[in-house]
Amino acid sequence: FLCLGDCQLHTSCGIQKCTTDFVSFTSHLNAALEDFDLEFCKALRAYSVCTYRNSKVCRGNLVYHSAVLGIGDLMAQRNCTKDGPTSSTNPEMTHDPCNYSGHTEAREHQGGEKTPAPTYLFCGLFGDPHLRTFKDHFQTCKVEGAWPLIDNNYLSVQVTNVPVVPGSSATATNKITIIFKSYEDCTEQKVYQAVTDDLPAAFVDGTTSGGDGNTRSLHIVEKVSGKYIEMHARHIGTTVYVRQLGHYLTLAIQMPRELVMAYEESQDLQLCVNGCPSSERIDDSGHLPLPVMSKLLPQGSASHPRSVYTLETATTKCHEKMLVKDIYFYSCVFDLLTTGDANFTAAAHSALQDVEALHPRKEHWHIFPRSRGGAVSRDSKFFALLGLMCLTLVVFL
């Protein structure tokens, strides 16, 4: 019953968990003892029940079908009856309290009613900064200084934003603080902090995981040294990506809806939940105004030279990384015209990659600007607006 790579294509299929449980039920059994067949049959029946529960989601998984056939063969060899006790007569015994994906299954067993699969939400922050909320609203904000992205009973995330260029209200993130709050016996409180040019692969206390050595319900994985880390919190079903691109940081997070909404009234200022306050918005309902560089970048400024990008060259540069002209593409154009920093192209591109990795609904990956009348406009209306403002820019220059 080996997983030969096909499991990677069926992340919703729970056959791996069924197989792991079966191995754990039988690994301690001794074939020389007289109760071996009795206990082995209990484990096989439990395995069979588990595969049956996953029959719909695993329908196209070859590993699943191999396991079902294998179970039948083993039951015949051991003369096991289909009906009888299983190794997990008490669901509490096999439920892992530090694995969020198993919580709903445990509730289903206890209540006798089928519990809907948990709904996962996505939030991301990148660039000048551009915010995608848990409600899939896209905003561009000032939010200079420290602001809470998330603040619920399980997790707190705070970002600090600083001005990018003089004369502009655009900011970017140079500090991220993440607090995983203590949870039962799964993990003690863990604090992670990243600042520009210091993206550690460990928590503030020097550890790389939470919980005991066996559980590791919370752990950090370094993907690119000093540039990209992932945090996986099994106990709350949450994944966090933090990157440094150029001089600034980006963040992406996936979290179960029921935990996202677990907060008090005093915690209502959460950018990922409610978006930016209207007074902090730079965009107009998703439309990004073309920055006038003559006002943003003083002539002859050595530390902040005039942007070398025009609307045409910025569009070409962003199109090299992003073929779909969605809001991430337009954000890239906006950032290049605002800052002249090509690293913002990589930030927009990686932000879209993070969406594709963490957002559970593929049909919502791409967000397109809307016209004033509410109809989706893939590029024409947006660039008509940019083109008009570009003519104004030429006049000013």
From TrEMBL:
The keyword Hydrolase does not apply. Residues 82-113 are annotated as: Disordered. InterPro entries: RGM, RGM_C, RGM_N. One of its GO terms (molecular function) is coreceptor activity. It holds the Pfam family RGM_N. It is a lipid-anchor; GPI-anchor. Residues 13-82 form the Repulsive guidance molecule N-terminal domain. GO terms for biological process: BMP signaling pathway; positive regulation of macromolecule metabolic process; regulation of primary metabolic process. It comes from the Eukaryota. The keyword Signal applies. One of its GO terms (cellular component) is side of membrane. Belongs to the repulsive guidance molecule (RGM) family. PANTHER family: REPULSIVE GUIDANCE MOLECULE B, RGM DOMAIN FAMILY MEMBER DRAG-1. This is RGMB protein. It comes from Onychorhynchus coronatus (Royal flycatcher). The lineage of its organism: Eukaryota, Metazoa, Chordata, Craniata, Vertebrata. The gene is Rgmb.
